[in-house]
Structures are given as structure tokens and as C-alpha cells.
Amino acid sequence: MCAIVGIYGNNNAARLASVALFAMQHRGQEATGISSSCDGKIYTKKDSGLVSEVFTDEALQYLKGNMAIGHNRYSTAGSDSILDAQPVFAKYKLGEMSIVHNGNLINKEEVRNELIDKGAIFQTGMDTENLIHLIAKSSKDRLRDRIKEALNKTVGAYCFIVQSRSKQFVIRDRYGIRPLSLGKLKSGGYIVASETCAFDLVDADFIRDVNPGEMLIFSENNEKPESIQLFEPEYRPCAFEYVYFARPDSVIDGKNVYITRENMGKTLAKNDANKDLKVDMVVPVPDSGVPAALGYAAQSGVPFELGIIRNHYVGRTFIEPTQEMRNLKVRMKLSPMKSLIAGKSLLVIDDSIVRGTTSKRIVKMLKDAGAKEVHFRVASPEIKFPCYYGIDTPNQEELISFKMTKEEVCKYIEADSLEYLSIEDLRNSIGADRNYALESFDGDYFVTK
Fold it and tell me: What are phi and psi of 205, to 5 degrees?
């Protein structure tokens, strides 16, 4: 669930790209990178770490030119953060190119093995490198045609930005699984980014979402980006963007993420099987549980209280690559308000339960702080199936709701009660106007090879 950005037609392209990546740091914290183009040459800087650490003034001065692409890495495919950091740069017959990618290609191994059989040598474990080789091996005379040919062999969830020495090519898969939006910079030029929260920070006006199956081409020959519809749209935006990944102030598919999460909380309260339960306060698991908790409190009439305080200098736990790191981050990130919760019955709202280990630690932390009861509510359905489209749940055995019933999960996390949002209620909370991608909840793997 990485972040990508493209800036075209602005003399501060790399700096603006770094600011946009900073706004989308929540989508990936392992590594970050930017490629810029200037005078027929592509310059690239990438490293493990956060945006603020990697893109110093010295690094940004190196990244010259009026166009740039950038990436924040959250690993779903591949392993080593430095080797697999993006953008991926290559020299080939038509010159130089650099690529960033958000998503996951489900036919990665099949295509990679075929390329290896034909002599290709891979430097990384990323599925993104498949596209590099497919483009380089094409016999087409124009890069746009090589990209089209390569995409015909590419299956899965993807948003790509391909940068040559003078152009940018922006592509979104036919299902529109991952978000991608187009904006106009007030200082000149265009921006394309995974989330609209990046537009606010760089002072850009939202134009529209990139359409599913569309390719936008930015070039100095055209005042506006050229649009080519490569594939017939079969729109299935990812529901998990609204549940967890996107920043609350982003707008995805015309829907404000904060409002949809608040709706989830209200619906959870309306349909709570234990709605007559007597509790003293609604407590969110910060930060992603806050809007849903506010919605639940408003609907139920139970007071909302910040019974858990988050240390904002610690990153997100779910997107950490190992369980050991996730456990450490939970302890470092969350602290109970003992004077507020001691002796009280709490109704705790979180956005989801994936592996169950974080929820178990939160319940224990609150009870150790003196809470009399901890009733756990989840503003999404039970996650029973792995996602192959860009969320780090590749192994079904890691998913607690696959292995356990709701009652068994409740006992495992040591909560006094546990309720989830139903799949139908999630659909209604986001909006019934779309057929959302819900594979983590219903096992409908609609993208096939």
C-alpha cells in the first residue's frame, strides 16, 4: 500500500514531490525515493528511512529539473528495503526511464520466470521490475506503445508512473483498486498522487481521479495531459482504503475518508448486538479509530473520551514488516490515561483486527491501567482472507478471524465482548453506489490471471 507521486511542469518538481511524499508518509515508512529529469538525464535519490531523513536540501539540489516522480515503500512483495526501494531506474534502447508503482501484480512469478528464461537478469525482488523488462524488450518505436504492450502482460492492482527524460506516463489498472488523483499546482504544472491530502500541502487544486484503465501522458508539447483509455473500466476501489490506509482528510472516489469512517461508527452503534450495554465511555484506538469512535458515541449517546494517548513520533504498527517490530511499536506508541479509565467500563473502537496481537495488547494495557471492563468494537468486518492486491496479509494462517470464531477471538484478546461491522453495513457506510473490492472480508478475488 505504497504512496506514489508525479510532478510535471514545475521548476521545484523534486521539492514538491518530497513534500507530497511527506504528506503520504502513512502509506509507507520503510524507504523513499525520487527521480527527476533534466536536460536529457534522469537523477535518482532513494534510501531506507523517512522522507524527512532522506530528502535533505543537498539531496533535493541534486534532483534537478521540472519533472519528478516519487515513492514511499510499504513492502508487500520483495524484502530488502534498500535494494527494493523505488523509483526503479534503467537504461534501454530508447534512452533512460524510471518507474514507481503502488499495488501488487498477481502474475509476477509467471512473467518473471518467462523473462528469466529469455535471458533477463533481475536486480530486485519487486514485481515493479517486471514492467521495466517488458518495456525494454519490446520492439515498438515509441515508449507509450511499449508501455501498452507491457501492460497487456501485467495482471493485478497497479498505479504506475513511468518517467522518461522528457515525459511522464501515468497508468491506473482497469479495476481502480488503488487510488490515484490528478491535480493542478497553483505554482505551475500538474501533480498526480495516491491521495488528495498531498494536494493540500503543495497548494494544488483537485481536478479529478485518474480513471480506471486510463493512461495520462504529460509532455511539453501539450498544455494538458493527453488521456488514453487503455482498458474497459471494471471499477472496484479498495474498501480497506476507507477502513484504515488513507489519511482522514483525503477524498477517494469523491468520498471524504473521515466521513465514511464516522459513518462506520454510527452504523456499528445502530446494529450493535449489545447496544443496551452499560458503559462509561467510548474510547478510540488512535489514530485510525477516532472517526469511527466519534460516530459511535454520537449515535449511542455514550461520552467520547481519549482514554488512550498516542505518541505521534512512532509510526503505524500494521505496516511494520515483522511481528516483533509491531509488538514493540504498540508498547511505544500507545499509553492509557489511567486517571480517566480506572474503575470504568470502556467501549473501545478500532478500525480492524488483522492478526489479533495488537488488540490483545491494547485490552491488557487498559485492564492493567485499572479499567473494570473492556468491550471491543471493530469498525470493519472480520478479515478472513488474504489480500493479493497490495495489503500485507499474504498468509491466511496469520489472520485470526480465519482461525477463530468471533467468540474465540473475544476470548483470545481477553475482551469482555466483541462485535464487528457486517459486510453489508460496511458497503452502506461507504456508499452503495460502487461495487467495492472486499476480498479481505468476502474472499471474492475478482482479478484473475
Answer: -95, 130
> For residue 426, is pLDDT > 70?
yes
Q: Which one is catalytic: 2, 197, 238, 410?
A: 2
Q: What is the phi/psi pair of residue 201, to 5°?
A: -75, -30
pTM here is 0.91
Whether 159 is catalytic:
no
- Cell numbers representing residue 295 in the block: 460516530
CA 128 to chain centre: 16
Mean pLDDT value across residues 352-381: 96
By C-alpha distance, which of 176, 172, 213, 103 is closest to 434? 176
pLDDT at 5 over 90: yes
